[in-house]
């Protein structure tokens, strides 16, 4: 009896599996649409403007943190005051 059941299930597995997967997918999609908020917030600045601002900030930081050209400038006593 067990062997016959296994053969029937294995033979009709795609026919049984596809509708079950469709039903479960629809239920999951419905639950997700109820639970989550799909609204996209309004951007105050465009992505290009944010990138330009970030690049300007990086350039300013690089100007502030210049590497000393020689090792003698590294330990300058004037900076220690």
TrEMBL record:
Q: Mind listing the UniProt keywords for this protein, alphabetically?
A: Membrane, Transmembrane, Transmembrane helix
Give the location in the cell.
Answer: Membrane
The signal sequence is none
Q: InterPro entries given for it? A: UPF0767 (IPR031933)
A Pfam family cross-referenced in the UniProt record is UPF0767
User: Its membrane topology, per UniProt?
Assistant: Single-pass membrane protein
The organism's superkingdom is given as Eukaryota
Tell me yes or no: is Transmembrane helix among this UniProt entry's keywords.
yes
Q: Where are the membrane-spanning stretches?
A: 12-31
Q: Which PANTHER family match?
A: SMALL INTEGRAL MEMBRANE PROTEIN 12
Instruction: Report the family membership.
Output: Belongs to the SMIM12 family.
Q: What is this protein called?
A: Small integral membrane protein 12
Source organism of this protein record: Brachionus calyciflorus
């Amino acid at each position: 009896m067990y062997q016959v059941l296994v053969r029937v299930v294995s033979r009709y597995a795609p026919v049984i599996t596809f509708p079950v997967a469709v039903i479960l997918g629809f239920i999951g999609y419905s639950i997700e649409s109820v639970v989550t908020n799909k609204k996209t917030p309004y951007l105050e600045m465009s992505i290009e403007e944010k990138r330009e601002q970030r690049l300007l900030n990086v350039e300013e930081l690089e100007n502030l943190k210049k590497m000393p050209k020689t090792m003698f400038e590294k330990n300058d006593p004037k900076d220690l005051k």
